[in-house]
Amino acid sequence: MARVLTLDEVNLDGRTVLVRVDINSPLDPSSNLFLDDTRIRRIIPTLNKLSKCKVVLLAHQSRPGKMDFTTTLGHSRELGRLLGKTIRWVEDIHGEKALEAIDEMENGDILMLNNVRMDEEEVSVKGDFDTLSQTKLVQRLVSVADAFVNDAFACAHRGSASIVGFTHLLPCIAGDLMNYELTKLRRALENPIRPCIAVLGGIKVDDSVIVADNMLRKGICDHIWVTGGVANMFLHLSGINLGKVNIDFLKNELGRSWNSTVSIATSLLKDFPECIIMPSDVAANVEGNRVDMSIHQLPIEAPLFDLGLTSIRSLSKAIKSAGTIILNGPAGVFELPDFAFGTIEVLNACAESDGYAVMGGGHTSTIVSQRGLSDKMGHVSTGGGACLELLAGRVLPGVASLEASAEQFAVSISKPIDHQ
Fold it and tell me: What is the arithmetic mean of pLDDT over 229-247?
């Protein structure tokens, strides 16, 4: 992968810096109070490195049409509480109010603009870097800024104006969180300690199958252990009759992606038959009760909700002896206590392993955090979709933007950055 510029390589003191962050947070639906401020806390190291700058924060909360789609006023207050200083907020994104507020800033000030997804172009305009650079959001903010810092790894798979529109107009630099994520994930993808295994579960079967395809064909992983809905798909394609209720569930979840997912998974089973490890037993939800059974006892007209005990022990043993573990998605319906056993034991094995354990974003990172295991993992990603896209070998627009900008702008590490 090409390089990106980091904050340690530039001196931005005294400059006006646009900083795109992802502080999209869970909110209490009745009060709009924060249920979790983790994402806000994670941007503090970047803000500390920009303490002698005029920092203008671009952020979003949810998306239009969602119940938690709201302004970023609460985010500015929460950030101010964490930093112990006033964070000015403006009910504007790139209009006169925003530009005037930026003009009034002094070094050390932090200004948070309103939810960027309240801007129509941010939501609707698609295209390449140059197309997005022509949006009003980019054109107006470029006129008052010296540099752009992208610290929103969780949005790196989005090709929107606030993520990639500044590519050729301003020096674009990776914030500390963005750089940390890329460094940790590239360690697992580019030079994994062997043996390297991936544990892919959850119900986003299409995404996991593409991840498996990338990792096996590029020789990143030695084995793929499948759990959850991903395991059900591979068992089905290998000739195991799961029962109509389970096959119908897979088809409904995948929808239009069914045929393409089946095609990729079938090719993997043909090309890498020894590398895809499927469970030997499963746990079905029979009228609310956990019933463990061998896959040879299938089909059953009850939903399969977890790995069986034998499979859990086998997977845990493999994890503890691996040099690198890449895990994404729960092993079963972990929300139900009787079917959380597989997910809990797999995560415990990762925490106890001497290997480098990478936890994918989304549900996985949430479960790891809830169980207090974050500090025992090699890396717990903050990016759900972005992490999955990177593991699948896809180009992340936000990262491609940083790489292109690093090539374009010659930056001195001993002088303030200058793009004039």
Answer: 97
> In whole angstroms, how far apart are CA 126 and each of 45, 132, 133?
31, 7, 11
Q: Which architecture characterizes domain 194-354 according to CATH? A: 3-Layer(aba) Sandwich (3.40)
CATH number among 3.40.50.300, 3.40.30.10, 3.40.50.1110, 3.40.50.1260, domain 7-181+396-408:
3.40.50.1260
d(CA 249, CA 252): 5
- Mention every residue, 6+ apart, whose C-beta is less than 8 A from residue 282: 231, 292, 293, 295, 298, 304, 306, 307, 308, 311
Cβ contact 203:255 at 8 Å: no
Q: Is 60 exceeded by the pLDDT of residue 420?
A: no
Decide: 133 and 165 in contact? Cβ < 8 Å: yes
Q: What are the structure tokens assigned to 40, written together?
A: 């806000």
In CATH terms, are 7-181+396-408 and 194-354 the same topology? Answer: yes
- The domain locations on the chain are 7-181+396-408, 194-354
What is the tens place of the pLDDT at every residue in 284-310? 999 999 999 999 999 999 999 999 999
Instruction: Give the separation between CA 224 and CA 40, rounded to whole angstroms.
Output: 34
Query: Which residues on neighbouring strands pair with residue 226, listed in sequence order?
Result: 200
Amino acid at 192: P
Sign of the torsion formed by the C-alpha atoms of 83, 88, 91 and 93: negative
The residue with tokens 């790891």 is 368
Residue 325's beta-bridge partner residues?
197, 357
Give the helix, strand, coil percentages of the chain, each rounded to 5: 45, 15, 40
Pairing of strands 281-286, 304-307: antiparallel
pTM reported for the whole predicted model = 0.90
Greater pLDDT, 27 or 282: 282
d(C-alpha 181, C-alpha 152), whole Å: 10
Helix or strand holding residue 123 (H, E): helix 120-124
Q: How many CB atoms lie within 10 A of CB 299?
A: 14
Q: Is residue 358 a contact partner of residue 391, using CB atoms and an 8 Å limit?
A: no
